[in-house]
Amino acid sequence: PIKQFKLTKDDVPGLLAALKSDNQFWRLHAQRLLVERGDKSVAPELAKMVAEAPVDPIGLSPAAIHALWTMQGLGLLEAGQAGGTGDANPTSAAAAALKHKTPGVRKAAVDVLPRTEAGLAALLSNKVLEDADPQVRKSALLALAEMPQQANPAAGEAVYAALAGPGVGDDRWLADAAMIAGARHDAGFLRAALTAFKVPEGSTEAPKSDATANLVRNGSFEEVAGGAPRGWRTRHYAGEAKQELSTTVARTGKNSVVLKSDKGADTSWYVDAAVEPNTNYKLSAWVKTENVTPVRGGRGAQLNVHGTEFRSPALTGTEDWRRIELAFNSGPQTRVSINCLFGGWGHATGTAYFDDVELTKGGVAVALPGATGKVLSAVITHYAQRSPKESVVPTLAALRTAQPQIATIVIDALSGSWPDGPDAAPQLTAADATELQAVMKALPPAGKDRLLALAGKWGRADLFGEALAAALKDLTARLDDPKATPGARGEAAKRLIAVADTPDAVAAVTKHVNANAGPDVQRELLSALAESRSPAVGEQLIANWLKLSPAAQKVALPMLLRREPWTRSLLAGVQAGTINPKDVLPQQWQALTTHPDPQIGNLAKTLQKSTGQAVSADRKAIVDKLQPVVEKAGDAKRGLAVYERNCQVCHQMGDKGGKVGPDLTGVGARPKSDLLIEVVDPNRSVEGTYRQWSAKTEDDVITGRLLSESQTSVEIIDAAGTVHALQRNQIKSLTASERSVMPEGFEAIPAEELADLLEFLSTSKAKH
């Protein structure tokens, strides 16, 4: 039978005896009373219990665990506390418990260890990150994340060693804990990573040139065996799909592979390829899509390296042959599995054709594979965002001896995430400048312009005059090459803007954004221009507006709303008649007229009114005027086309559509009169979730719906469905409007089309 206790705060021997009970109720009761009593004279007895408590038949020592937590509750482990000598001292007892024979006690010792220099030293000296028990290792990593940062890199080195060791990379929670600890001790972690990928001393091996041989066998699917492309197989994850060989649709030759689904699927054609360890590769393919729609979290038609985070941009909708690509580093792998993927992290419907798949050496990898790559990328980004001026030069100096691929990954992340402005710039000494110039000489070509971009953020591009001139010449030549792929030209444009964000660089990019260039080229170059901060972008795009194709204008309009100087250029273009005011969508007019800058907002209101685009303020009168439309029977089939043209970009119905506005699944249950009000008077009743918000940073103005927020960041989804993640410390103002994210003005839809739209909405079979 279980021994019963009559516990009181005054019966100290009884409380200590109850801590050893084999019943958790009595142990917890005794622990609480000892802590509430607050008498620290029990420290020697508690320390002795930690050291001498027996281990029960199932390998636990609960008395030792409760003794540790009692010491922690009494504050005996805080700095300056005493209570005995040797093993009878609480702090010494807790440190000794890090080597206890039972994992539960070791974990408790880690959890109660004070988050001090002494606690950090105890964790490292006892090598707890190498503990055989994963729960102990996880607690140790999380404890390190709360320990003081040191100039000594030992903590960061220990975290990297744990990550690179056995067991951590295969465990999601251990990898996440390593990421948190690595971010806390980022400088030491990065130096350890660079040391791990160090070029061997005395190595005379010349840098390997980029090879152009395709490592994918039968990448054009012309070799066929048994009705399937030789060497390729299917890999199916979920849903219903057809995986076929097409002999009628191809970009080159006669064949391509097809993935299609009517109900939604996640599926692929795949091939395995041999690779060299720690080598950069570029994977590409040409894809043709027909009505590809992501559903249930899917992405569309894409490429990916199976079992890794490496994936290309995904294609959706209906597009003619378009090239997609991604770069990756093989890490320790000697073989990779290449997916022509349909769906991806969810499902997709429609049809996708893949042809001319290529895997070649070269490219600029953005990360290493697996858990090591994921954690390293996060730690570098965190390190750069906090702009550690005291350690950045030694960190960059370590790139001199690092393998080229890891050096490129690190400098790419540093240049991309380091904050702009003089406050984040280190004060460089003459010795620092000399060191950085040596780093520039040692970096591979792909890393040199990243270091130039970083120096530009510091206002010290003058350090690398010769390298800057060479980079500008090389990048401009790549940008101007009409034979280069759209992706390659877009990448050259982005790097050019990063290295020298000047009117001349903007002009070099903008001159290629015209109707003579293909739509993919224009899209890639506009994406590059969006990363600029130069007022010249708005000025030059408006000056060349009539040379842009309609598709390019549609991409450029929302882009010009992001930065105030560009927005002023946009309004100047409307005022001058260069931009047709009818091309500015209702949601864009709403963003302009409610702009955080009063001058921009007032000018937009004036232009909207003078160009006949202003909407009537009397919404009730408009609703009353359109009541006959409610009584009219429309054509639901034509209404679907009206819906897709005006509503689907923001609203989801069933598995299709955007997520800016409310989900319209089940809207057919409501009467037409209600639907008319929602369409033409969206501000009559605005649910808080769908109010319009405006976030203003140093450079950007983002308008849309507040999608999510945390203590450190917010996410806003704009009218185009793009999600913008903003750090709170970068936000100058965040304001909510009383207006809905859905703009007014849809009464401009012709009455017949409005009747068709209401008919479609009211007869929709998508019900809750």
UniProtKB/TrEMBL annotation:
Domain of life of the native organism: Bacteria
One Pfam family it belongs to: CBM_4_9_1
GO molecular function ontology, one term from the record: metal ion binding
Keyword Secreted: no
Record InterPro entries: ARM-like, ARM-type_fold, Cyt_c-like_dom, Cyt_c-like_dom_sf, Galactose-bd-like_sf, Haem-bd_dom_put, HylB-like_N
Gene3D superfamilies linked: Cytochrome c-like domain, Galactose-binding domain-like, Leucine-rich Repeat Variant
Record keywords: Heme, Iron, Metal-binding
The protein's name: CBM16
Lineage of source species: Bacteria, Pseudomonadati, Planctomycetota, Phycisphaerae, environmental samples
